[in-house]
Amino acid sequence: MSDLLYEIGTEELPAGYLEPALEQLAAEVERRLSGCRLPPERVRTAGTPRRLALAVEGIPEVQPPVEVRSVGPPATVAFDQDGNPTPAAEGFARSKGVPVESLQVEQTQKGPYVVAVRQEAGRPAADLLPELLRQATAAVGWPKSMRWEPEGCLFARPIRRLAALLDAEVLPLTIAGIAAGRTTRGHRFLAPEELDLEDASFDSYLEALRSRFVIADIQERRELIRRQVNELLAPHGSELADEALLEQVANMVEHPHAVEGSFDEHFLEVPAPVLVAAMKEHQAYFPVYDAEGKLPSSSWAGSATTWSAPTAWRSCRPASRRRSARGWTCAACGAPRGCARPIC
Predict the structure, then answer these.
(1) Pairing of the two strands 2-10 and 104-108
(2) 177 exposed, middle or buried (CB, 10 Å; 0-12, 13-18, 19+)?
(3) pLDDT computed for residue 300 by the predictor
(4) CB neighbour list of residue 59: distance below 8 Å, 6 or more residues apart
(5) In this structure, are residues 61 and 2 in contact, taking their beta carbons and an 8 Å threshold?
(6) Per-residue pLDDT tens digits for 249-263
(7) Whole-number mean pLDDT of the chain?
(8) Nearest 5°: phi and psi at 321?
(9) Which residues, in sequence order, are bridge partners of residue 66?
(10) Rounded CA gap, 98 and 85, in Å?
(11) Cβ pair 177, 151 in contact under 8 A
(12) I want to staple 112 with a disulfide (CB 3.0 to 4.6 A). Which of 40, 42, 75, 106 is the partner?
């Protein structure tokens, strides 16, 4: 049995695209493998806004042989009155690659017909997988898609890299002009260097990315955000209850880090549903409620990339306190939408 590891590295995907795409990709690959007489034992997925990853475990190395039956001419045409094969029978046997002596006569609804039976040897999985992966990738549907290169590949966002390993070997796969290799990348800011994958081990792949600031397992990332946000909400007597927002945020980041922020209290004059809608739908923040389910304070909790969260919080907090003709500005230095310096 062999294992397959397939990763599609893309530009940033919308949060709502990620999980449906992974489900489709896994289903397409599993269906096509089964149709090729290579049923896998298990299919697993992982993904972030910048990668779709698929692990297929327990793929037979070679297709099992299959019996192929081909119906030929009527028996009255294939054999003469003495039972000797005619040129029609000889030509049919030759076209099917079997001896004329092996031809059988079977009764059908139209009468007796000649049948050729032969054993077709299986092909190696390594020969079938490149085209199978190409077709499965093209079969993934998107709410909106784009073309960006001369071949006209259609995908939600441009594909920038491919990794395709069958055990320790790279598959000869090319999509959108990009040849598959054995490299992936960590977090684009914290660990952007290329990382070589030794083999198709999915657990090793996840651990390698984890060590480079990418939590590729969606459920692990979701639970990490839940735990971090609940730690921030606990002092307010609240806890995370919006599963839809949690799912969205989990699919917007690769290495989550929850932070707590606030806005000027005079914004509380706005009806709470309007504030909550702005926080959830436009900023992907988790509103802070009290034990009675009210919005008593001007706090919110969000999840961002580890390296940028503290700076973003320190710089953007003053920005929310003053608005000019240019829009929101940093109260300390006047920079539009806050400045990048922690001191501001």
Answers:
(1) unpaired
(2) exposed
(3) 65
(4) 1, 2, 3, 4, 33, 38, 40, 41, 125, 166
(5) yes
(6) 999 999 988 888 877
(7) 84
(8) -105, -5
(9) 120
(10) 14
(11) yes
(12) 75
